[in-house]
Amino acid sequence: MKIMVNGAATEVRAGTLAQALDELGYGEAKVATAVNESFVSTAARGQTALEPGDRVEIVAPRQGG
Amino acid sequence: MRLYGTDIASRLMLGTAQYPSPAVLAEAFRRSGAGIATVSVRREAGGERAGAAFWDLVRGLGVRVLPNTAGCHSVREAVTTAQMARELFDTPWIKLEVIGHADTLQPDPFGLVETARILADDGFQVFPYTTEDVVLAGRLLDAGCEVLMPWGAPIGTGLGLTNLYGLRTLRAQFPGVPMVVDAGLGLPSQAAMAMELGYDAVLLNTAVAKAGDPAAMAEGFARAVEAGRLAFAADPMEPRDMAAPSTPVLGQAFLE
């Protein structure tokens, strides 16, 4: 199915957010996630089912002021 | 200085953005003596691992991190960003920015108060980036904020304290509340002035990161912050309009 990952249309086979992160190469990366503008904790990713068109945001620590 | 129950030795807080290199960033922090570093969260691609490299750098600084919600314009966006930052950086601290105006990056006072309340109720310790408005400050305290961070001038301008009257009034209205002048500072003298007004700390980024020699500027700010704090604590003299000789008049030789 097609979902949006960080603003880009992306084809995934994954059924859950945790599976999508694995499939997209995040592995053990230090990232935080949101689906459709709502925060999804690391612990909840395995139970978070994805639907076509879902908007997934994946962020990591960065420089800031 | 005590912020949300945590004692912080330095009254200078420093941002981590815009340095020419990670090595220059680390050296600037070393010479600043800063005890708090602001950081952000941004999109990461699969396999990129830039976040892990930056996180290692920040951990090496030996400072507390204060994640921000920079660039957020809505309540929803700011809340979600804060929740992601809390998990990533493992801290309840959040520098809350809810921007209301594109050219000045002025806070949206209505969205700021609403977001501050949601986050405080959710256990966050909120450091709101605000203006010098005393009514807004009162609302933020009512919402659960225990620290206020009024701007000196718009972010990145280096204009210094553009509303001295407003900042003096705000300081006087809430004497027991820790307050940090955040944003708009360009020179150490401006940081010293903020401290002389009785502000507890200053937070800056661009003035150091964009200086020709960021590490030297960081040390300059550190000394200015210390000088300003000493002056505030030393109870400065009252200014007066007419001259008053400092050398004794009595005993002067009569040579006319």
From TrEMBL, chain A:
<dbReference type="InterPro" id="IPR012675">
    <property type="entry name" value="Beta-grasp_dom_sf"/>
</dbReference>
<dbReference type="InterPro" id="IPR003749">
    <property type="entry name" value="ThiS/MoaD-like"/>
</dbReference>
<dbReference type="Pfam" id="PF02597">
    <property type="entry name" value="ThiS"/>
</dbReference>
<dbReference type="InterPro" id="IPR016155">
    <property type="entry name" value="Mopterin_synth/thiamin_S_b"/>
</dbReference>
<protein>
    <submittedName>
        <fullName>Thiamine biosynthesis protein ThiS</fullName>
    </submittedName>
</protein>
<dbReference type="InterPro" id="IPR010035">
    <property type="entry name" value="Thi_S"/>
</dbReference>
Automatic annotation (TrEMBL), chain B:
<dbReference type="GO" id="GO:0009229">
    <property type="term" value="P:thiamine diphosphate biosynthetic process"/>
</dbReference>
<keyword id="KW-0784">Thiamine biosynthesis</keyword>
<feature type="binding site">
    <location>
        <position position="156"/>
    </location>
    <ligand>
        <name>1-deoxy-D-xylulose 5-phosphate</name>
    </ligand>
</feature>
<comment type="subunit">
    <text>Homotetramer. Forms heterodimers with either ThiH or ThiS.</text>
</comment>
<protein>
    <recommendedName>
        <fullName>Thiazole synthase</fullName>
        <ecNumber>2.8.1.10</ecNumber>
    </recommendedName>
</protein>
<feature type="binding site">
    <location>
        <begin position="183"/>
        <end position="184"/>
    </location>
    <ligand>
        <name>1-deoxy-D-xylulose 5-phosphate</name>
    </ligand>
</feature>
<feature type="binding site">
    <location>
        <begin position="205"/>
        <end position="206"/>
    </location>
    <ligand>
        <name>1-deoxy-D-xylulose 5-phosphate</name>
    </ligand>
</feature>
<comment type="similarity">
    <text>Belongs to the ThiG family.</text>
</comment>
<dbReference type="GO" id="GO:0005737">
    <property type="term" value="C:cytoplasm"/>
</dbReference>
<feature type="domain" description="Thiazole synthase ThiG">
    <location>
        <begin position="3"/>
        <end position="248"/>
    </location>
</feature>
<dbReference type="InterPro" id="IPR033983">
    <property type="entry name" value="Thiazole_synthase_ThiG"/>
</dbReference>
<comment type="function">
    <text>Catalyzes the rearrangement of 1-deoxy-D-xylulose 5-phosphate (DXP) to produce the thiazole phosphate moiety of thiamine. Sulfur is provided by the thiocarboxylate moiety of the carrier protein ThiS. In vitro, sulfur can be provided by H(2)S.</text>
</comment>
<dbReference type="InterPro" id="IPR013785">
    <property type="entry name" value="Aldolase_TIM"/>
</dbReference>
<dbReference type="Pfam" id="PF05690">
    <property type="entry name" value="ThiG"/>
</dbReference>
<feature type="active site" description="Schiff-base intermediate with DXP">
    <location>
        <position position="95"/>
    </location>
</feature>
<comment type="pathway">
    <text>Cofactor biosynthesis; thiamine diphosphate biosynthesis.</text>
</comment>
<keyword id="KW-0963">Cytoplasm</keyword>
<dbReference type="GO" id="GO:1990107">
    <property type="term" value="F:thiazole synthase activity"/>
</dbReference>
<keyword id="KW-0704">Schiff base</keyword>
<dbReference type="InterPro" id="IPR008867">
    <property type="entry name" value="ThiG"/>
</dbReference>
<keyword id="KW-0808">Transferase</keyword>
